[in-house]
Design a protein that fits this description.
There is one protein chain. By secondary structure, the protein is α/β, with parallel strands linked by helices. It has three domains: 2-50; 55-332, Alpha-Beta Horseshoe (Leucine-rich repeat, LRR (right-handed beta-alpha superhelix)), CATH 3.80.10.10; 340-428, no CATH class. It has 16 helices and nine strands. The chain is globular and about 90 Å long.
Length: 429
C-alpha cells in the first residue's frame, strides 16, 4: 500500500519522502477511526437521552398517569375535617407535578395532609418541582409523617441542603421510609457530591436506628463517577437491608463497577437481588469483570442476583451458569417483556377461573370466589365440611391446570376442554 501511494505521488509530479507518506496515511486512517468513534458516541448519547428515567420510575409513572383521578394531587382545602381533605389522606399514592398547577400554597397543604395522624399515604412522587420554597415544608412533612414508606424525586432542581436533610431524615428522624428514588435531578458538582456522600453514609450505618432499614435506593442520572462510589461501596460491604440498587445513566467506569460488585460479593449478609448499572461507561477492556462473573458464587441458595448492563460499551458478553444464581441482562427487551407476560398471564388466569366457576355453579345460590379461586364458605350454601373441602380441592386442581396452560401457552386438549367442574348440587348429591 505504501509503495503504491509513493508511486502515485511520483506519477503526478510530487516528490515526498517515505516518512511524509506514512504521516499522511496515518492521519487519514486516524480521521476515519475518529469519525466512527464520534458517531458511536452520538448514538450512545441519543440512547441515554431517550431513556430519561429508570425502568422502575418509568413503570411507576405509567401506572400513575393511567389513572390520574386516583393518584394525582387535588387541592384539599385548609379544613382537616373537610371531605376533600379526608379523601386525600386516604390515598396510597400522591403525585405532584408543577405543570399541573402545583404551587407553594399546595405544598403547604400537602405538608398538612402528610402530618395528619389518620393519613395513609405510602408513596410520595415529586415530579419536576423546581421552586426552592417547597423544600422546607416538604422536609418538615417527611420528618413527621407516620405512613410514608417511599419518596420519589423525579427531575426538577433541588439544593444541596435539601438532599443532606433528606438522607438524614431517612437515616435518623423517620426510619419508616424504606425506599428513596432520585431520578434525573438537575445535578451540579455540589449536589452530586452530597448525594454520593449521604447515600454512602446511609448504607454504612450498620448501627441504624431503624429496624427494617433502607431497602431500595435509586440514583439514576445523578452524574456519579467511579470516584464518587468509594463511600457507597464501603457502605455496601456492611449493609444488610438493601435489596435493590439502581445506578443507571451515570458516568461509572470499570473501576466503579468492580468496587460495587466486590463490595456486594464480600458481604455475606447482603440481600441485594437487583443491581442496575445500565447506560454507563463500563467497557471491560481488561476482562476483569468477566473473570469476576466467572468466579461468582451465590451467598445463599435462595438469593438470586440480577445485574443489568444495558447500553454499555462492553466488548464481550458473559453468560453465567445455572448454578451461580446470577442473571446478567444486556438487552432492554429482556427486562420488560417477562414482567408484562407474567402480569398478563396472572390476569387471564383470574378471569378464566372466575368465569369458569360462575358459569358452572348452580344458579340462584349466592356463591362467591375468593382471590385464590376457592369457594368462600361464609357465603355459599349450607354444605358439610367434607363437601366444602372436596369442592375447594377440585377447584384448586382446575386452577393449577389453567395456570400451567396459560403460562406455557399450550392449548388444552379436547379431553381437558370437555371436563367441566361439578356444580355444588352435584357435589352434595
Amino acid at each position: 500500500m505504501l509503495y503504491n501511494t509513493l508511486h502515485s505521488f511520483r506519477r503526478f509530479g510530487h516528490r515526498i519522502t517515505v516518512f511524509e507518506a506514512y504521516r499522511r496515511i496515518s492521519r487519514f486512517v486516524g480521521s476515519i477511526i475518529l469519525r466512527r468513534r464520534m458517531h458511536k458516541a452520538i448514538l450512545d448519547i441519543r440512547k441515554r437521552n431517550a431513556a430519561q428515567y429508570s425502568l422502575s420510575t418509568t413503570q411507576l409513572l405509567g401506572n400513575i398517569l393511567a389513572d390520574e383521578t386516583r393518584h394525582c394531587y387535588r387541592t384539599p382545602g385548609i379544613d382537616p375535617r373537610g371531605k376533600e381533605f379526608m379523601k386525600l389522606t386516604q390515598q396510597k399514592v400522591i403525585y405532584c407535578e408543577q405543570s399541573r398547577g402545583f404551587d407553594t400554597a399546595d405544598c403547604m397543604m400537602l405538608s398538612m395532609v402528610l402530618r395528619c395522624k389518620g393519613c395513609t399515604v405510602v408513596h410520595l412522587v415529586l415530579h419536576n418541582l423546581s421552586n426552592r420554597l417547597y423544600e422546607e415544608a416538604l422536609l418538615h412533612a417527611l420528618r413527621k409523617s407516620l405512613s410514608l414508606r417511599s419518596v420519589y424525586i423525579i427531575g426538577g432542581s433541588w439544593s444541596k441542603d435539601f438532599f443532606d436533610q433528606l438522607f438524614h431524615i431517612v437515616q435518623v428522624d423517620n426510619s419508616r421510609i424504606r425506599s428513596v428514588s432520585i431520578d434525573k435531578v438537575l445535578s451540579t458538582s455540589s449536589v452530586t457530591e452530597s448525594i454520593a456522600t449521604r447515600s454512602g453514609c446511609l448504607l454504612m450505618d450498620y448501627f441504624n436506628y431503624s429496624i427494617p432499614g433502607i431497602q431500595t435506593l435509586c440514583l439514576h442520572g445523578c452524574g456519579l463517577t467511579g470516584d464518587d462510589l468509594q463511600l457507597l461501596s464501603r457502605g455496601l460491604e456492611v449493609n444488610s437491608s438493601l435489596e435493590s440498587l439502581v445506578l443507571s445513566s451515570n458516568l461509572i467506569d470499570d473501576a466503579g463497577f468492580i468496587a460495587v460488585f466486590c463490595a456486594l460479593y464480600g458481604n455475606k449478609k447482603s440481600k441485594v437481588m437487583h443491581l442496575d448499572l445500565s447506560q454507563n461507561l463500563i467497557k471491560d477492556s481488561d476482562r476483569l469483570i468477566e473473570a469476576m462473573f466467572a468466579n461468582y458464587r451465590p451467598i445463599s441458595v435462595q438469593l438470586r442476583l440480577v445485574v443489568l448492563l444495558v447500553s454499555n460499551p462492553l466488548k464481550k458478553f458473559y453468560v453465567p451458569k445455572l448454578t451461580q444464581n446470577l442473571q446478567i441482562v444486556y438487552n432492554a427487551s429482556d427486562v420488560m417483556m417477562p414482567l408484562e407476560k407474567d402480569l398478563l398471564a396472572e390476569d387471564s388466569i383470574h378471569k378464566a377461573t372466575n368465569q369458569m366457576f360462575h358459569q358452572n355453579s348452580s344458579g340462584g345460590r349466592n356463591t362467591e370466589v375468593s382471590a385464590n379461586g376457592l369457594v368462600d364458605a361464609s357465603t355459599s350454601s349450607p354444605l358439610t365440611k367434607d363437601c366444602r373441602r372436596d369442592d375447594n380441592n377440585h377447584h384448586q386442581q382446575q386452577l393449577y391446570s389453567a395456570t400451567d396452560n396459560v403460562r406455557r401457552k399450550v392449548k388444552p386438549s379436547k379431553r381437558a376442554q370437555s371436563i367441566r367442574p361439578l356444580a355444588l348440587h352435584q357435589t352434595v348429591t
